[in-house]
Design goal:
This protein is mostly helical and 209 residues long. The protein is 85% helix and 0% strand. It has one domain.
Length: 209
């Protein structure tokens, strides 16, 4: 599995250079406007996109058939991609924590809690996107993955603007704290991530290539 991870890191190396440039832009933007939210959000979204990018390259070159001719099981192949996603989200989280402590010094605690909430949401997003990509292919399901981000975001924004979500916001504000939301987001994210991994392994073991 270590070899598969090394291959994936090598695959995303060129794409990562572009993403790092964008991250630096968002970091500078956040510093200038004293608004780290966009940077912290994109940092973790970037970490969920990279495993899917590596998978797209493998799919385009039909690498899976080659890998399975080697002493690599289908379970190992799927598990390596989930492990890659987990590693990248953890690394991105650590970068976000360092930036929150050293660069965005104001509202430090709030930034760290926001980072935790976004981490849970990103784990959830990857948990949904990876099985879809595995079933239909990355290229065919690319628009569905984009829709999973934009459609809920637009829907929530519109509903919030019309005031339909105010009762929910009031209930959450009165009955929970941001720390509880952060912890709950991470726990649920990891549980769904585990379920997604188990489903993906089961599906891929029975898939015809």
């Amino acid at each position: 599995m270590l070899g598969l991870l090394q291959k994936d890191f090598y695959t995303i190396k060129k794409q990562a250079k572009i993403m790092i440039f964008i991250l630096v832009f968002y970091l500078i933007f956040g510093i200038m406007n004293d608004s780290p939210s966009f940077f912290l959000a994109f940092l973790l979204i970037f970490s969920t996109m990279m495993p899917l990018t590596a998978m797209a390259y493998d799919e385009r070159n039909q690498c899976d058939k080659l890998f399975l001719c080697m002493p690599v099981s289908r379970r190992d192949l799927v598990s390596s991609r989930f492990l890659l996603g987990l590693i990248l989200t953890i690394v991105s989280n650590l970068i976000g924590i360092i930036c929150s402590i050293t660069v965005f010094k104001e509202d430090r605690t709030e930034n760290l809690l926001i980072l935790g909430i976004i981490w849970g949401l990103c784990l959830f997003y990857f948990s949904i996107c990876f099985p879809i990509a595995l079933i239909f292919g990355v290229e065919k399901s690319r628009y569905a993955m984009m829709g999973l981000i934009f459609i809920p975001t637009i829907a929530v924004a519109l509903l919030a603007k019309q005031g339909y979500l105010n009762p929910i916001f009031d209930f959450v504000e009165k009955n929970t704290t941001m720390i509880e939301v952060c912890i709950l987001s991470i726990i649920i994210g990891f549980i769904i991530y585990l379920i997604s991994w188990l489903f993906s392994v089961k599906f891929y073991e029975n898939k015809e290539l």
